[in-house]
TrEMBL record:
SUPFAM superfamilies: ClpP/crotonase. One of its GO terms (molecular function) is isomerase activity. The lineage of its organism: Eukaryota, Metazoa, Chordata, Craniata, Vertebrata. Belongs to the enoyl-CoA hydratase/isomerase family. PROSITE patterns: ENOYL_COA_HYDRATASE (PS00166). It comes from Apodemus speciosus (Large Japanese field mouse). Residues 98-119 are annotated as: Disordered. This is Enoyl-CoA delta isomerase 1, mitochondrial. The keyword Isomerase applies.
Length: 325
C-alpha cells in the first residue's frame, strides 16, 4: 500500500508544475526548468537547503533563456519558507565518450558537445562562461536592452537575496561566471589549476558595468579590484584565495560536502539578524543601480552596438573558435 502511494505521488509530482518538472526522489525534492536543476535537501518541516545546478550546454553561458529560468527558480526558492540556504554550482561533470562537433557549425545545438547518442552535453569543468557572447553580438539595440535588463535583474535578485547563498565553484568562472559567485555570501572553489575566476572583460575590449565593479570592490577591496579589472585577471584557485575572490579552496571531490558543512554553520545564525546585516552591507551598492537602471540599460545598448565593440567581440569569438586544446 505504502509503495503504491509513493508511486502515485511520484506520478502526480512528475505531472509537472506550471514552471517546470517537479519530482520526489528519496525524501529529497527537485524541480527543473530546461537549464536549471534545483534539488532540495532536508526533511519536510525542517530547514532545507537547495542546490541550483546550471545545465546550459555547452558552457553554462548566461543566455536570455538561462537568465529567465534562473530568476524563476530563485523566486520559487525565496517564496518557500522552509528553504534558508542555496548553493549555486554547475551540473557539468566529467563524462566519457564526448565528441566536439565541428566549429564551423553555428547553431546553439550544433555548438554543443554531444555524446555518441547525439545528446547535448555540458563541457566538463565549467562553472559558467559568463554572459552569452551571442546575445551581445550581431543583434539589434532592442535585444541588447532586453538582455541587459535580464542581466541586471539576476544580479539584483542574487545580491539582495535574503537567503544564504553559497557558490560551489566546480569549474572555470570568467566574467559573468565570477559575477554569479561574488553575489554569494561565501565561495568555495575546486583546487584545480585549470579553473580560473575573475572579471576579464577588458580582455574582450568591453568594460564591466559600475555595479559589477562595485560588487568586486566590496569583495576584494579597491586596489586589488582596480588592478584586476584593468588587467582582466583570471585567477587560478590559490591566487583567487589570496586576493579574496574566493573564501576557500578544497580538493575537487570535496567541494560539495565542504559547502554543505559551511552552510550548516551559517544557518546556525538567526535569520533576522543575518539578513539585516546583509542588507546593511549591500543596500547602498544595489540602490546605486536601482536608481539608474534605465540609464544603465541605454548605456549598455549603445556601447555594445558600437562598431568598434562589435568588432572586438567578433575577434574574441573567432579566437575562441580557433583556439587549440
Ligand atoms: C558604458 C558601459 C556600459 C555598460 C557596460 C558595457 C558592456 C558590458 C558588458 C560587460 C559584461 C561582460 C561580462 C561577460 O560575462 S562577457 C563573457 C566573458 N566570457 C568569457 O570570456 C569566457 C569565454 N570562454 C572561455 O574562456 C572558454 O570557452 C571556457 C574556459 C569557458 C571553456 O573552454 P573550453 O575549451 O572547455 O570550451 P570552448 O571550446 O572554448 O567553448 C565551447 C563553445 O562555447 C562557446 N563559448 C564559450 N564561451 C562562451 C560565451 N561566454 N558565450 C557564448 N559562447 C561561448 C565557444 O565559442 C565554443 O563554441 P564553438 O567553437 O564550439 O562554436
Amino acid at each position: 500500500m505504502a509503495m503504491a502511494l509513493r508511486a502515485a505521488s511520484r506520478v502526480l509530482l512528475r505531472a509537472g508544475s506550471r514552471l517546470g518538472r517537479r519530482e520526489a526522489v528519496d525524501g529529497a525534492r527537485r524541480f527543473a526548468n530546461k537549464r536549471v536543476l534545483v534539488e532540495t535537501e532536508g526533511a519536510a518541516g525542517a530547514t532545507r537547503i537547495a542546490v541550483m545546478k546550471f545545465r546550459n550546454p555547452p558552457v553554462n553561458s548566461l543566455s536570455l533563456d538561462f537568465l529567465t529560468e534562473f530568476v524563476i527558480s530563485l523566486e520559487k526558492l525565496e517564496n518557500d519558507k522552509s528553504i534558508r540556504g542555496v548553493i549555486l554550482t554547475s551540473d557539468s561533470l566529467k563524462r566519457g565518450n564526448q565528441t566536439k562537433v565541428a566549429a564551423t557549425e553555428k547553431t546553439e545545438e550544433k555548438r554543443a558537445t554531444r555524446d555518441h547518442g547525439g545528446r547535448l552535453q555540458e563541457r566538463p569543468g565549467i562553472f559558467s562562461a559568463g554572459l552569452d557572447l551571442l546575445e551581445m553580438y550581431g543583434r539589434n539595440p532592442a535585444h541588447y536592452a532586453e538582455y541587459w535588463k535580464a542581466v541586471q535583474e539576476l544580479w539584483l535578485r542574487l545580491y539582495l537575496s535574503s537567503l544564504t547563498l553559497m557558490s560551489a565553484i566546480n569549474g572555470a568562472s570568467p566574467a559573468g561566471g565570477c559575477l554569479l559567485a561574488i553575489t554569494c555570501d561565501y565561495r568555495i572553489m575546486a583546487d584545480n589549476p585549470k579553473y580560473t575566476i575573475g572579471l576579464n572583460e577588458s580582455l574582450l575590449g568591453i568594460v564591466a558595468p559600475f555595479w559589477l565593479k562595485d560588487n568586486y570592490v566590496n569583495t576584494i577591496g579597491h586596489r586589488a579590484a582596480e588592478r584586476a579589472l584593468q588587467l582582466g585577471t583570471l585567477f587560478p584557485p590559490a591566487e583567487a584565495l589570496k586576493v579574496g575572490v574566493v573564501d576557500e579552496v578544497v580538493p575537487e571531490d570535496q567541494v560539495h560536502s565542504k559547502t554543505l558543512s559551511v552552510m550548516a554553520k551559517w544557518l546556525a545564525i538567526p535569520d533576522h539578524s543575518r539578513q539585516l546585516t546583509k542588507t546593511m552591507m549591500r543596500k547602498a551598492t544595489a540602490d546605486n543601480l536601482i536608481k539608474q537602471r534605465e540609464a544603465d540599460i541605454q548605456n549598455f545598448a549603445s556601447f555594445i552596438s558600437r562598431d568598434s565593440i562589435q568588432k572586438s567581440l567578433h575577434m574574441y569569438l573567432e579566437k575562441l573558435k580557433h583556439k587549440k586544446g
